[in-house]
Structures are given as C-alpha cells and as structure tokens.
Amino acid sequence: MADTTTFEPKIVAYVCNWCTYLGADLAGTNRLEYPPNVRIIRLPCTGRIDFNLIIKAFEMGADTVLVSGCHPGDCHYTAGNYHARRRWMLFRELLNTLGIEQERIHFTWISAAEGKKFQQVMSEITEKARQLGPYVAYRKVCEAS
Amino acid sequence: MARIGVFTCWCGENIARNVDVDKVAEEVAKLPHVRCSLAYKYMCSDPGQAIVRDKIREEKLHGVVVASCSPHMHLKTFRKAAELEGLNPYLVEMANIREHCSWVHHNREQATAKAIDLIRMSVAKVMRNRALQPIRVPVTKRALVIGGGVAGIQAALDIADAGHQVVLVEREPSIGGKMAGLSETFPTLDCSQCILTPRMVDVGQHPNIIMHTYSEVEAVEGYVGNFKVTVRKKARYVDVDKCTGCGACWNVCVSKKNLSEFDFGMGKRTAIYVPFPQAVPARPVIDKSACLRLTKGKCGVCEKKCAAGAINFEDEDRLITEEVGAVVVATGYKLYDIGKDQANAKLEGYGEYGYGKYKDVIDSLQFERIVSASGPTGGEIKRPSDGKEPKSVVFISCVGSRDNAKGLSYCSKICCMYNAKHTMLYKHKVHDGQAHVFYMDIRSGGKNYDEFVRRAIEQDGAHYHRGRVSKITEENGKLIVRGVDTLAGVPVTIEADMVVLASAMRPADGVEQLAQKLNVGYDEFGFLSESHPKLRPIETNAAGVFVCGACQAPKDIPESVAQASAAAGKVQVMFSHQEMTREPEIASINEQTCAACFACVRTCPYTAIEKAEIRDRNGKRIKRTARVNPGLCMGCGTCVAVCPSKSADLEGFTEQQIYAMVESLV
Predict the structure, then answer these.
(1) B384-403 in b/e burial notation, b at 16+ Cβ within 10 A?
(2) A86 — contact with chain B (CB < 8 Å)?
(3) Under CATH, domain B136-233+317-332+521-579 is a member of which superfamily?
C-alpha cells in the first residue's frame, strides 16, 4: 500500500455545465471545504464525454477520474445523461479488458442544488484515491507501449 | 506563437485570501504563449475591464483568460469587453479560481497551486479557441396554435391582435374545447358559454387567424423561426365554403342515435352534425362511421336537401403545409376514463365505483352537460337511467388523483372547486335535494375560492364527509354508497340517486405523439415539460415551442388563460426581431471524413442532424454524409461522443480543446 500521508492523488472530473458544474459552484458559494486534488473540466453535457477522454486522463497521470452530470430526467438537453449512463454500462466491461481498475472511475449525478453532495463526493473519492495509491501500474503500461 | 493574456482577479479578499494572486500571475507568465499576466483587485469592475481591453489592444492578444469567478457569473461580461476591443468574444475563456478554488480550499499553498493548474488548463484551451460568429436565423412571423380550447383561443387572439398571422389547428369539428361544454364556472357562477362563445366568434372572424378545425398536426419540420408544419384536414364531407350552416341536412338525417361526443355520451346526435349550436365554424361534419350513405351506400337525403350543394361524399383527407416561426401547444386535457381499457395496466382501478356498469354513475364532465342549459336535458337535472330528478347525489373527489396504489400520484387541482360548484348548481335546481361530497382534503387556494367552498357548505347545505368511498352497489334503483367519515370515525352509507365521480385530469389523447413531433419533453403522465418549473414555465426545451393550459399540468380556466397570454407574449418577443441570434457553440460534422454511419442522427436529441449528400457539379453523388442543422442544434455534444470516425465536433468544446486541457495537467 502506498504511503497515504504524503501521496496527493490527481483527480480529473468531467462535469456537465448545467448541473454538476453549478453544484460545484454552490459548494464554493457555501464555502464547503473539500480536498484540493480535483481538476474540473467543464463540458456542456455528460453526453459529450467520449470515453477516450477518461483513458486520456489516466494516460496523463490521473489517479482517479470522475464523471458527473444531471440526475436522470433532469438533463438540460433532455437525454444526454442517459446516453452517458448507457455508454458507461458498456464501457465498464471494456475497462476490465483494458486492465483499468474500475474503482478508479466514479460516475455520479450531482444537481445544481447539491453543493453539499459535491463536497461529500469530492472528499470520498479523494480518500478512496489515497487508499488506492498512485496508479503506477497503468502508467507503466503507457510507457511500455 | 500565440499571444495570450491572463488576468487574475483578487475578487477583493475572496480569492486573494486563500490564493497568492501575485505568485499566480508570476508563475502563469512563465507559461509558453502567455504574453502578459497580471493581477487586479476587481477584474469585473470598469477599471478592471479597462485593463483587459488595454492589454488586448496594446499586446495584440489572440486570446484572453480571466481567472476569477465561475463562467456562469462573468463569462458574458468579459466576452463583451473583448468584443468592444475588436477581439472575437469566443476567444475569451475563464478559469474558475473562486468557487472551485479559493472558497473551498483553505490551505493557501495548495489553493495557489490549484489556481495555477486551472489557469494552465484554460490557457491550453483558449489557444485552440476559434473565432465564432453568432448564428443568425430569419424569423417567419406567423404562429401555430395547436388546440382551440380556451387556452388556444386566448393565445391565438393575443398574437393575432398584435398583428401577426396565426394558424389555429383544432382536432374537433369546432373550437371551444372543454370550456364550451361547461355549465357555469367557479367561483362566480357565470355561464361558461356566455363568456366563451363571443371569444370563439372573435377567432372565427379575426382577419389574422386561419382556422383549421377537424384537423391534426401530421408532421413538423424545421427549427425555431422556421417551422414547416403539415396539417391533416380530415374529410368533413361538407364544403365549408359553400355551406351556409342552415341546418337542413342535420334536420333530415335518419341516423339519429349516435352518442354525442360534445355531451360526453349524455346526449345523441345525427350522423351529419354540428357538435353544439354555437360551434365555430357553424358548419357540420359527417361522421363517416355513422352515415348510412358512407357505410352502406344508401340514403344521401342530406345531399338532396342541401340547397347550397355543399355535401360531398367523395371528400378525402387533405394535407396542407403551413410555415410558421413559433408554436404554441394548448392541447388541454381529458378525464381519466375509469373502467375502460387503459394503456397502462396500473390505471385499471376503481371498478368498485361501477362507472360504465351503473348508468347513474357518471363523471364530472357528464354532470356538467346535465346541468348545462344547452345540454341534452335542457338544464333540468335528470338522471341518465330513467330521467327522474335525483333527490340525493353523491360527489366523490380524487377518483384517480392522489392515489399511488391504483391511480395517478398528482392532485388534479380543480376538482375540489368544481365539486363545490356542482353541489351548488344541484341545490339551485333541486331545492329539496341533498348533495354529499366525499373528500380527502379541500384544496381551494385562489382568489375567492375558499369562500366559494364555504358557501356550498354553509348556504347551500352540502354534506361534506372527509373520507373515501369503498364500494357502490345498486339496489332497487338506488345506488348504495358505502364510505367512511374519518372525522366522525364512523362508516357512512348513503342511498343515492346519482353518483358523480371527480375523475383525475389527464393530458389529451395523442399528446405524446405530438410532443415527439415537436421534440418537447413530457413526464410519466404525459404532461408536457416546461423548460424550467419556476423561471421558464412557458418555454419548452425545444426552441420556439411554448406550452399553455392543461397540457402542461392540471389547471383551471384563469390559470390557463393567464398562461396562454404569457405564451402569446413570448411569441411576440420572438416576432419583434427580424432575425434571431443563437450561440454558435454548436456541433459540426467534417463531411470529408464522415463515414455516413449516421449514429449521430439516431442519437441527437433534437433531430438536428440530417442525412445529406455531396454531389459534384453534374449532380452525381460523391458521397453521403451527416450534416448539422445550425438552427436546431443546441450544442449538447452527444454526437461527438458517438461518432466512430471522429468527424463530429462541438465548437467551444472541441476535441482539441478538451484533450489539450487534459494534457496540460501533466
């Protein structure tokens, strides 16, 4: 197990512009503190998230990736989050084949009103990432190829 | 070498407290392509914006990153400032170092490091931003109103009075909707037809309104400002232009025993008929399933009697096309038809009330026709089975509403009020009669509404029992209603002559199909979805399509009318411009690399992508490709994620931009 006291995991979060990004804004407005490990990338909709982006994040050294959008039924674009969810179900199978540890990817719904939930999710996944340690295994694969 | 300017904001103490802004500016200045980097106390203030503008001019910047608050707060502000200085507004990006950094991370060192990271990502992105031009689309200043009930009538009249042409499509032979069949209206008890029919006439005579009655919307193409709508005009078998509405035909029609739709089956009509005397247009239609000439080839007496020669048995459905810029949906409601086959098996409850089995168990709209002066009984209250005056009537609330177990979970909103009204109308006509109401709660919010219910109870002596009815049986011509009064804590049995069920309000039949044609969302019950429940209650997620009336949620007449006028207002806002501008951050397809698999066409929630062909100058097809309609695309980017050949991309969030952001994280 990695040294959990000094290791600071890199977390990339792909979030939709209308729900989770605003949820993160609300966490800020309410001054809800969470670990500073996450780097948020704003996209219009989770439907825009091509899973190559997730792989790319790992390639670039992320230890954990989060995908978060609107709750089912609340998508600003009617159905983008359903597409994301369906794609995620299929993608999960592929991850095994690729050898990516599934517990390094998180998929959640956080609405614009859930600043508190954003804080909780950030704290939880950071803690989880700390426990998992640096994702050296995948980086070795990247370097080898 | 790109020339990027980075402007870091202190936001007073908001950012500067936890982020070392000077260090950030210093570190960011070292990034490749960053031409200038400076920090200022309030970037969004006038002097702050002036700094940005000065630097754009002096340093001839290609792109700008403002590191401050959320882009939802000030992206527009800074884009506008850049535009004033001649820099394309879409070359401005923001790094959110307040909401996503200084406000949530209290460790100054870590927060400063994160702020630098966030800015680095934005710099990587902005270098790949493209200058975009807002999309301009012309506006056809004609509106389509679907549904000619009170909401549709109001919306059509308001838009037409503002000087724009309106196409009004109504499925039934006459406009008027449910309100035309109501007796009197709460809380004033004014006669429904007396207030509605003048407005119907206004619609019929308005020079700006084109009415298509007995017609339905068949297909909708195009996009906001430029819809092309195909309307099916159902075969009426009567030439509306020749017909004078004299009535000779329906007076001689031999097929007289058809249930009247307008009377909800309480009365009869002929095969050639006008639904009610004040119908607009006052022109008959022939019910082809009842007409002897059309079913058996016999009769044809109406044709002989018609002096105008308006009857045409060869008539067929016609499809016509209307071009409009905006659509108002006002398709209204129907009542939950208890006891009938339901599309949803969950809704087959309430057999214990005997609706459809006992003739004297009717629903509220049927009761409206019985009390209406223009109804089948001429306004005398007679029960359907034997025509006797009922001396005891039980009204049951919430039949199907607020019942998760066997009905619908929502409150139908208007039943408490019309139940009170029904008890009053009944008492005013049958002085020695007794009205009973079984209710769950009395919901009478609204101007003069609660006073109205109190009047029904206190002045007109209606007996209100708080509780549900478990079963209704028929014995010796009486309906035995067994229920409970939960306030008294006793079972109640009432021998009634008639029972009226306040059935739940449901959206009109076929609204889901219509919603799909218009790309409007609907909820699990079929009510159309507004864009935002509080702030955009009239708009839908389909640009240029508005909703009003009971197709959106159960509502009463005043609310429907108010919403209809609001929809008309929204349409007029659209029509006040010659052309519309839309955000250019939309999808595009690289037609050279597109493999024409059309995965995007199937995924697009807005049907904004169409199949197209590229042809050479001789018209010979070179290849097939997908193509984005910029008028329809809303910029969600779902097509980008599904495109196997990576030919789809989304301006503002291109593959290059997003990958560059990820890569900058190393």
Answers:
(1) bbeeeebebbbbbbbbbbbb
(2) no
(3) FAD/NAD(P)-binding domain (3.50.50.60)
